[in-house]
Design a protein that fits this description.
The chain has nine helices and no strands. By secondary structure, the protein is mostly helical. It has one domain (2-211). Helix 5 runs antiparallel to helix 9. It is globular and about 55 Å long.
């Protein structure tokens, strides 16, 4: 079980390194705003959903996507609405000066960041397909034997790997953020908002294609 946890940790860590998805964009946006706890909690919430999908995949439940194929486009349609709202907020926001910039979110806002990260990943059932492919690769390589009991420690490792990577990202942002001018950080925040909107358009396009 310890070996399965370690395998999951490595897979979660390596899978999170390309910061190209909505969770990575939101973590980066929170970080350059100086909201470091909020950044990590978005990642932690998204990691919970992804770890759950990993557990389902290693339990061999990928056929759920074939039985309920409509879940993927519906999830993407809802994700598009959420990401449009987030992208607009990021485009309109301006970075505050260092002396007034918050480094932590108020307690009532921390839960919102976990829920935001969790819901964005949970509304993307395609993650189950991705983890099913990863499970097939691990089993075919003989790294793990196909046993349902390994799914839980492996998914825990996945969450730890995702969380560990974003701890490093948030630490780097906290360490080097103050070296940049406020105007530069504001431009970076708005570029991130634009990236989030592009992702929203892609999700919306997938949903409209399914509808048509």
């Amino acid at each position: 079980m310890l070996f399965a946890l370690c395998v999951g940790f490595v897979m979660g860590l390596l899978g999170s390194i390309p910061i190209a998805g909505p969770i990575g964009a939101l973590v980066f946006a929170r970080g350059i705003e100086g909201r470091y706890w909020a950044a990590f909690l978005v990642a932690a919430g998204g990691g919970l959903s992804e770890a759950a999908y990993a557990a389902l995949a290693f339990w061999g439940l990928a056929e759920l996507l074939e039985r309920y194929a409509w879940l993927v486009p519906i999830g993407r349609g809802i994700s598009a609405l959420v990401l449009i709202a987030v992208g607009i907020v990021l485009l309109r926001r301006r970075i505050e000066p260092p002396q007034t910039a918050p480094t932590t979110a108020a307690p009532r806002h921390l839960g919102r960041n976990i829920v935001l990260g969790f819901s964005i990943s949970a509304l993307n059932p395609l993650l189950l397909a991705n983890w099913s492919a990863a499970a097939a690769m691990v089993y075919s390589a003989g790294v793990l034997t196909k046993r349902g009991g390994l799914a839980l420690p492996l998914s825990l490792g996945v969450w730890l790997g995702i969380a560990g990577w974003y701890v490093l990202v948030v630490w780097l942002l906290r360490r080097y953020r103050d070296r940049f001018r406020i105007e530069t950080l504001t431009v970076a925040l708005r570029i991130t908002g634009g990236v989030v909107l592009v992702l929203a358009v892609w999700f919306a396009y997938s949903f409209v294609q399914w509808m048509l």
